[in-house]
Design goal:
With about 220 residues, this protein is α/β, with parallel strands linked by helices. It is built from five helices and nine strands, in the order βββαβαβββαβαβα. It binds S-adenosylmethionine (SAM), ligand 2KA, iron/sulfur cluster (SF4) and magnesium ion. It catalyses: 6-carboxy-5,6,7,8-tetrahydropterin + H(+) = 7-carboxy-7-carbaguanine + NH4(+).
Length: about 220
């Protein structure tokens, strides 16, 4: 009898994944929806405040079929693709297309350092603008901003008053207002949320204040 050989997994149909879990969306305008998180491994940046540094290394290869099976078994309708930096793995774009084809509401959290133009139009792109306080301000890919639309979001994670003043200036310089909703979030344990709230109100700034809801509920733990 001839031995059956198992075909090797197609390298274009797999991703290195740190975790897949179900929680409540804690960030962006989709905050509060039960959401399945797909956290991809690896990031070329090193933001000083990063709460997901455990995703820089390790992880396991998953085929698209394995990911889709796990997502189906978790049962929610919203999916957030995050990391690490999800777009650092080129197959990520194809996975998101497959998830949209299956009818999921997909959002992407990205550092804004990598081209977002190839992301499926059905995906809501939440693009961080890295501030001076993050330590990664030189990595911003400014060409991303004109590509964004009303279903995307532009986010600033602020480390202090200097970052806040810088962000206000960037909004004017890059004419961001009216393009996509703008989110201002305090870097956890670095900027007092109440101070940021007071600055926004005092300036009548047309931005949306954000707190990471999952940390209010569960603290800073992986898988939540
Ligand atoms: C962990 S990152 C992963 C996606 C992508 N690499 C990015 O930076 O957008 C997801 C979001 O968490 C934010 N974040 C990370 N650490 C944070 C902290 N200590 N406080 C507030 N937001 C934080 C990031 O700025 C980003 O908007
Ligand atoms: N609950 C919850 N909501 C989130 N939204 C974005 C997250 C992220 O780490 O990118 C995240 C996360 O880690 N947990
Ligand atoms: S880009 Fe995102 S994952 Fe990478 S270090 Fe910064 S916050 Fe963390
Ligand atoms: Mg997180």
């Amino acid at each position: 009898m001839r031995a059956m050989s198992i075909p090797a997994p197609d390298p274009s149909q797999r991703l290195k994944i740190t975790e897949i879990f179900l929680s409540l969306q804690g960030e962006s305008s989709r905050v509060g929806w039960p959401t399945i998180f797909i956290r991809l491994t690896g990031c070329p940046l090193r933001c000083g405040y990063c709460d997901s540094a455990y995703a820089f290394y390790g992880g396991e290869w998953h085929t698209f079929d394995q990911i889709l099976d796990q997502v189906r078994s978790l049962g929610a309708r919203h999916i957030c693709v995050t990391g690490g930096e999800p777009l650092a793995q080129k197959n990520c774009t194809e996975l998101m297309r497959r998830l949209c084809d299956e009818g999921y509401q997909v959002s992407l959290e990205t550092s804004g350092s990598i081209d977002v133009s190839k992301v499926d139009v059905r995906v809501s792109r939440v693009v961080d603008i890295k501030t001076p306080g993050s330590g990664e301000v030189t990595r911003n890919r400014w060409e991303n901003l004109p590509l964004l639309n009303a279903q995307d979001e532009i986010k600033f994670v602020l480390c202090g008053r200097e970052d806040y003043d810088w962000a206000k200036q960037i909004i004017v310089e890059h004419q961001i207002e009216g393009r996509s909703p703008i989110l201002f979030s305090p870097s956890q344990d670095q900027l007092d949320p109440r101070a940021l709230a007071d600055w926004i109100v005092a300036d009548r700034l047309n931005v949306r204040f954000q707190l990471q809801l999952h940390k209010v509920l569960w603290g800073n733990v992986a898988g939540k």
